[in-house]
Give the backbone structure.
Amino acid sequence: MYAAAPARTATPFGPAPARSASGAYAGAGDRPGAAARPFVTLGLPEGYDEHGRARALGVRVRPRTAVAAACLVLGLGLVGGAVTGGRLAGETDDSATAGSFATAGTLWHSTPIDRLFPPTVEGRGAGPGGADRTWTRVAVAPDSGCAGAFDPLLRETLAPVGCARLLRATYTDSTQSFVTTVGLLFTTADAPAMGSLAARFRNEGLGRRTDLMPRPYAAQGTVAAAFGVRQRASWTVSVLTEAPVVVYAVSGWADGRTVDTPQSAADATKAGAATAVAQAGLGNEAQGLADRVERGFRKTAGSATEKPS
């Protein structure tokens, strides 16, 4: 119900308009010499006449005021709808991202090993000077936990993200001069924890520290039989943030020679790097194979989380 306004009260926009003898608010048409303007009645409450019959009270609104009010209501509705829609879209996007992250963490037991570690991996332009590389898988380690798989300091560094499962495979190049172990560590961490670990590796240069090299997987009866911890020459570690996975690779010579001064792949592949590891292309072996296994995993994870059209 609309309440009757006092005869003259102050408003934020000046004094309230006076009422005419009929009880309606006076407009320009009520002033002497002013042209009369039409009024419209909107949803008026009812009073009673002298016979006890309901009658509309004289509350009238100018057309211009009515249009402005309608626009205001419409505008508020649109803004409110947009905000609500944005929140819903954001919630949907967040849910989809969380679902994709969780799904990626289960791929170790739902994806064929040949898809995660293909029998042959092509590395177009992956060698020194942009030379092509081809790697052949020589062994796949049984899927396991992380006990004994990392040096103590690297194990401590990775501990905050946990270990759900570790998958590893060892490859050799087309000339069987080099061997490279590539690993997929599936963690138990959530997205913020993976982001924190990735930031540590990036900001603290952990991927270049020789005391944080991954261990190789040496398989008896293969060209990698002598690939032990003293044969490690170059390595790389990549912490994913869109999946609970750490991808790494470590390379060495296939003849079992020891390496006194290993060099990270990031340093060994720099232009002008002149160490024996860099000149042999062992940094390219580790980086090139890790990159392609990571790409394959991302593709597999993307396919696993795609919604059917």
